[in-house]
Amino acid sequence: MPRLRLPLPLLIASALLGLVAGNALAQSRAIDKAEAQRGQAVPESPESEPPREESKAEEPDPSQDRTPLGIDLHAIRLLSHQDKTESNPAPGSESISIDAEIAAPDSLHGVLEGYVGQPASMGLLADLVKDIINAWRDNDFPIVDVYLPEQNITEGKIQIVVREAMLGQVEVEGAKHSDPAYLKKNLRLSPGDRIDRRVVEADLDWLNENPIRQVNLIYDRGEEDGTADILLQTIETNPLTAYAGFANTGVPLTGENEWSAGFNWSNPFRTEQSIGYHFGSDVDFETLESHSVFYRAFLPWRHEFRFIGAVVQTDVPSNPDDLIPIDIGGESIQLTGEYRLPLRRIGGARRIRQTLTAAVDYKTTNTDLLFGGASVFDSEIAVFQFRTQYEATQQDRLGRTQLTLGSVWSPGDVLDHNDDASFDLLREGASADYWYGFLELERSFTLPADFQLVLRGNGHLTDARLTSTEQLLAGGYLTVRGFDENLVRGDSGAILNAELISPSFSLAGTAISDVKDKWNLLAFYDSA
Residues 328-340: pLDDT tens digits? Predict the structure, then answer.
């Protein structure tokens, strides 16, 4: 059988292509690395602590005195104002009577029926008042004043005044980098409106989408009778953040030691936007250079738009001592646009915050192998794909759960180099049309003594052969620590992480009061 003999440079190029292209493409994920590094200094999501709703109104005295008063309750009458109270009411023919001016919940009648015929006591009356308040709160109208006016109950008829507070005034406290008028406008209640918790909750969720601030809501008794004022207590972070760092998180091809630096400006001129920039380079500023930009806009109709762009250039010269000098160069570009829709909280799962994201990714990468100054292998691919993902976050007394579930679809043949031939050149059997699903699940537990346990898993599932731009990468500080960056790549697979994190402590701050450093001890287990 005849044998095909390849020229030596082409043979070497072919043998190295999989390794070089894989490393170069994996290294070109500048956005993933930039987001991970800048995430240590710049918050990209709302605070994990949920916003608080507090009330300065006094709660009724939960009396436990069960001493019988010598009468049974034969009738319960709810009044909209104490001026309607009768000093010596007769039982009448109706066991339950609710003033027509009271916007009573549908469940209230059944609550009151449970008290008819019961022997009256101070404890029973306190329970009755509490259950009436809870009937309003369970129907998402939390501000209601319930009390027993002075009356004669010897005939077994009890009169209770129920006054649901309407909105009085809205005030803002602590907003320096956010526009107070914007915060007020996004509370979709006007003076005189009923205070619907579902509306208030959704409005707080939106205001807290901007990570520069945490807005808590405090109810207080209004100046006008029958009203409640709302205070939007705002806690903000520094809008301008700059950072720099050094890490050995690179790949051997371009150097494991890398510099990084960047900045983020949140809410410039109180415009509900943010812009950021990230720079990365090898330690000698020779083989790798990356630039990433980030933009977020919180739109007036309560959706969010994000744009992310990155350019990575690699230039790896051959070692003069190598028997066969091969230079490697390339450039990668990524442009991503995301449109995020915060979803309403669901009735039975009100603690869960949800978002839906639709995105478009454009990526292009070229790799050139030079032998003796002449190009012997030049390849380029362009990726054009659509991404959808669902995110859910729940905070509870034990910790926090976060779920991300999504899929990526590429139709192929949309742009130049977005074809099967170009993809197959980089990885045999790869095609430009593909689909894969991805899942990320994280659960954190707050432990005694302020320790924290974090369990995390993520994975890919597909029946396609993917290029390194889309494969699941394992190895390095973001995935499996203790191994080289992106040592293992796969089309389908899973990565599991467990971390035990100590409480934060300061070293320099104990000696220098002006220094605010923070350290944590970490024990971890990673697998892929």
Answer: 778 889 999 999 9
DSSP 200: H
Cα 38 to Cα 291: distance, rounded to the nearest angstrom: 13
Which pLDDT score is estimated for 25? 45
Residues 6+ apart with CB under 8 A from 191: 166, 167, 168, 169, 227
* pLDDT lower than 50: segments of the chain: 1-28, 48, 375-376
Range of the domain at 128: 57-164
Residues belonging to the chain = 528
Q: What is the pLDDT of residue 8?
A: 40
Assigned domain for 383 exists: yes
> Domain for residue 194, yes or no?
yes
Query: Are residues 365 and 257 part of one domain?
Result: yes
Closest alpha carbon to 238 in 211, 207, 217: 211
Residue 156 belongs to a domain with what CATH number?
A: 3.10.20.310
Whether residue 184 is found in the same domain as residue 206: yes
In this structure, the answer to whether residues 245 and 386 fall within a common structural domain is yes
Same domain, 197 and 157: no
| CA 146/CA 161 separation, integer angstroms | 6
pLDDT of residue 459: 95
pLDDT at 14: 42
Find all residues with CB under 8 Å of 435, minimum gap 6, and list them.
407, 408, 409, 410, 462, 464
Q: Which helix (H) or strand (E) holds 126?
A: helix 122-138
Measured CA to CA, the distance from residue 329 to residue 347 in angstroms comes to: 55
Residue where the block lists tokens 């934060």: 504
CA distance 327 to 469: 22
Q: Are 216 and 206 in contact (CB under 8 A)?
A: no
All residues at 6 or more sequence positions from 159 whose CB lies less than 8 Å from its CB, including other chains = 77, 79, 85, 86, 89, 148, 149, 151
Number of domains in the chain: 3
Q: Are 278 and 41 in contact (CB under 8 A)?
A: no
Cα distance between residue 444 and residue 366, in whole Å: 40
pLDDT digits (tens, 9 = 90+) for 72-95: 888 899 999 888 888 777 766 788
CB atoms < 10 A from the CB of 223, how many? 9
Pairing of strands 352-371, 374-396: antiparallel
Contact in structure between 346 and 352 (CB atoms under 8 Å): yes
Same domain as 250, residue 307? yes
| pLDDT score, position 30 | 62
If you average pLDDT over every residue of the chain, what do you get? 84
Is beta strand 144-147 parallel, antiparallel or unpaired with respect to 157-164? antiparallel
Which is nearest to 127 in space by CA: 64, 59, 57, 55?
64
Residue 463 identity: D
281, 277, 276: which is closest to 249 by C-alpha? 281
- Is residue 282 a contact partner of residue 257, using CB atoms and an 8 Å limit? yes
